[in-house]
């Protein structure tokens, strides 16, 4: 089963605003960027092959070449074809008029992700270097460059980037937590702990109960996590509910954790992650039909941002319910959208034998 973790290397979510107010249903519209708009809509729906067809049509219609190259890059990233993605994004950069604008930075972020996922760490670092050369205070680029360096085995240089990112934005606890997770993943837990202790000490008077609670959660101090998170009104605070529930999950109390998630959904049905965690708790308790219902409720939330996780967990629920035929059919569709999930491919081979 797949839960939700804070992302360490941000693969930018393929939720892209439409270029036009109305998107065409197909790829043959007459407006200058209608095919591009349709391609972007297809990416939103994870229909990457369809997106490529739309961008091909945009090319024939001589629509904005730079936008379609960027779109092609995103579509090939969705297909996990990172060589092709990088080639299209490089072309999009080459079409710049030489005056850096927001799209140039945007493309460089995507290009760095494509390079990294393609095993080209040095090229990814160069993309972040290009951003920082023109925007030295671009904190996210500094942090992400540090992550690439860390995962490539260059701890000393990575730490310099992390130090700089934290000094530029010391009260960004979301980023601090992502840095901590990256350090833990690479065997530097104590360094991450030192960052937490330093930030807590420096911001003792300003740090909120919520931020203290989740920092203690990541440190594994669940009693303090419970204490501080319980000071927050969780019935109306999505993040606090999520972390308090996770704290009880870590303590093995899935029943109480599920009650926290379920109570929150009575007031707010817009957060997919709450439903996902509720489903995971139900799975732990052997309540597979209720788990399936929770995952599917989350999938019905438009723009939920975690469809891959939800689809995978839905399949697992069907497996536990011994409905292997449905699970296999869903897994076949899943792999069309997420072909680089090796674990899912192995599971699919198993399902086909049941």
Describe this structure in words.
The chain is mainly α and 354 residues long. Helices cover 69% and strands 0% of the residues. It contains 19 helices and no strands. The longest helix is centred in the N-terminal third of the chain and has 16 residues. It starts with 33 loop residues before the first helix and ends with a helix.
Secondary structure tally, helices: 19
- Low-pLDDT ranges: 4-31
**Total beta strands:** 0
Mean pLDDT value: 89
Q: Describe the largest sheet.
A: none
What is the element string, with H for helices and E for strands?
Answer: HHHHHHHHHHHHHHHHHHH
Shape: globular
User: Helix content range of the residues, please?
Assistant: 55-70%
Features:
354 residues; mainly alpha; globular
Helix and strand topology:
Layout (H helix, E strand, L loop, with lengths): L33 H11 L3 H13 L4 H14 L3 H13 L7 H16 L3 H14 L4 H13 L3 H14 L4 H13 L3 H14 L6 H11 L2 H8 L8 H13 L3 H14 L4 H13 L3 H12 L7 H14 L3 H14 L4 H10 L3
Helix pairs in contact: 1-2, 1-3, 2-3, 3-4, 3-5, 4-5, 5-6, 6-7, 7-8, 7-9, 9-10, 11-12, 11-13, 12-13, 13-14, 13-15, 14-15, 15-16, 16-17, 17-18, 18-19
